[in-house]
Amino acid sequence: MTQVEPELSAIELMLATNYQPFTQEGWIFEFKWDGYRVLASKNQLLTRNKKNATKRYPELMEPLAALRGSFILDGEVCLLDEKGLPRFEDMRARILRKRGGDAVNYFAFDLLFHNGRDLRALPLIERKAKLRKLIPRDHPRLTFVDHIETEGEFLFKHAVQIGMEGVMGKRANSPYIAGRTLEWRKAKRAGHHDGWERPLNRSG
Questions:
Q1: Residue among 32, 128, 170, 188 flagged as catalytic
Q2: Which domains does the chain have, with CATH numbers?
Q3: Which alpha helices (DSSP H) does 38-188 contain, by range?
Q4: Is 150:4 a contact under the CB 8 Å cutoff?
Q5: I want to staple 28 with a disulfide (CB 3.0 to 4.6 A). Which of 8, 49, 147, 202 is the partner?
Q6: Is 32 a catalytic residue?
Q7: Is residue 34 within 8 Å of residue 164, measured between CB atoms?
Q8: Distance CA 31, CA 14 (A)
Q9: pLDDT tens readout for residues 5-33
Q10: What is the pTM of this model?
Q11: Which of 86, 129, 133 is nearest to 106 (CA)?
């Protein structure tokens, strides 16, 4: 019998806890991308509030449909500037206008299901290895979120220097757990809030 993935709406996201930058063996560290958290399958996008975003980001659907097999990805939808840095306010403005604009990118950082198999109990580092094989390198719309091991403070300093939102620290052997957990920790630069938490700037 062929296995199939569940509906995206049935999946509860794993959420990070605010934390100070740290360095520790057994952890991996990624840039924290400033965008909208979105689950992705071959034919649907779903926001963290369980809103269907498939028509909101049509430029992502053809690339997702072209990936091998079936899957459920966890990641962030971002609109980038000419330096490759996220432009959250521009992306939010695009959503409020309810029409197209500059194209967005999908930054995939976790693989929850693949070809009907539930991967959430696997260690994160194994899920990311499978995700790395799934996402084409140098794709114009889909990006695998790479990581470094141990050196979280180093990556955080680099993130601040180049203008990124911050860093995600994740225990390398952690399963994917629904809800907020200390297995994932987010360190943001001073005075910076997650994009979806920021008050709406209606100027201009």
A1: 32
A2: 12-193 (3.30.470.30)
A3: 61-65, 88-97, 124-134, 152-162
A4: no
A5: 147
A6: yes
A7: yes
A8: 17
A9: 999 999 999 999 999 999 999 999 999 99
A10: 0.90
A11: 86
